[in-house]
Amino acid sequence: MHRIRDENQDIIDESRDEDQDIIDELRDENRRTGEGLADVLSAKVAAEDYPCLGARSVFHRGRAMVRVYDTLAGPQTAALLLADLAAFAQQVDPAAGLASFVATFRGPDIADEAHFERLLWTQLQAVADLDGTPWSQGVSSNPSDDHFAFSAGGTAFFIVGLHPRASRVARRSEVPVLVFNLHEQFEEMRASGRYPRMRDTIRRRDIRLQGSINPMLADHGEISEARQYSGRAVGPGWFAPFVRGAEPGPDVPAGSADSRGGACPR
After folding, report:
1. Which of 27, 29, 175, 262 has the most beta carbons within 10 angstroms of its beta carbon?
2. 198 vs 162, which has greater pLDDT?
3. 64 CB neighbour count, 10 Å cutoff
């Protein structure tokens, strides 16, 4: 009986080692292909009419860490993404200026804004389910809370989703993209008094590009930032399909509103 148990444990250990080898190989591939996509995104935000000055600064100063993953909400993506987010938070120096972690995905093909929104929240839920660290202090884990922010590896992030079917010009990209911005960056900008000026400039530029103001923009603490992540305009009855240490909201599917929107963070 002991021998059978030992043999079973050996099989389990070998399987775990093989899974880790696959993850390591995928991570290496991510790093090899990230530079090309970084160039594409850098060219996009460098355009004269691109509204988000923060994104332009991040890419211009080489402060964007770009990683490539196979599929948004794919079965192996969460483990890779969580590990890379934790490494980014440990390596980046917030005092050196704005920095972003940019997760790009080879697929799937996005049908519309509601489809992307579902994939985004499926991916965030999968990352949170794997994450064994406490939620970042100072922000709520309840997506219905006005002080909600996504946390990974104990670090709070504000997320900006981009994809080919976005109705807001500033949210369009060739492939699905999730940009993870350190929450503490925005808090530092508020404390220094720089945030309102930058925010207002971005909004004016977005109006010139789109012809209208992004209907989903709000400052942290005014309304849950979860409503802004996917870039799709949502109504007052919308609830994020996400639970982490919080009571789930009413059973309302993500993206229940009819209107659309989105743009640069804040």
Report:
1. 262
2. 162
3. 21
β-pair partners for 179: 102, 160
Amino acid found at 17: D
* CB neighbourhood size of 22 (10 A): 13
- CA trace torsion 220, 96, 78, 168 (10° rounding): 50
* Look-up of token digits 């929450």: 183
Q: DSSP letter at 140?
A: B
d(CA 57, CA 76): 32
Buried b (16+ CB within 10 A) or exposed e, 47-58: eeebbbbbbbbb
pLDDT digits (tens, 9 = 90+) for 140-190: 999 999 999 999 999 999 999 999 999 998 899 999 999 999 988 877 766
Global pTM value: 0.76
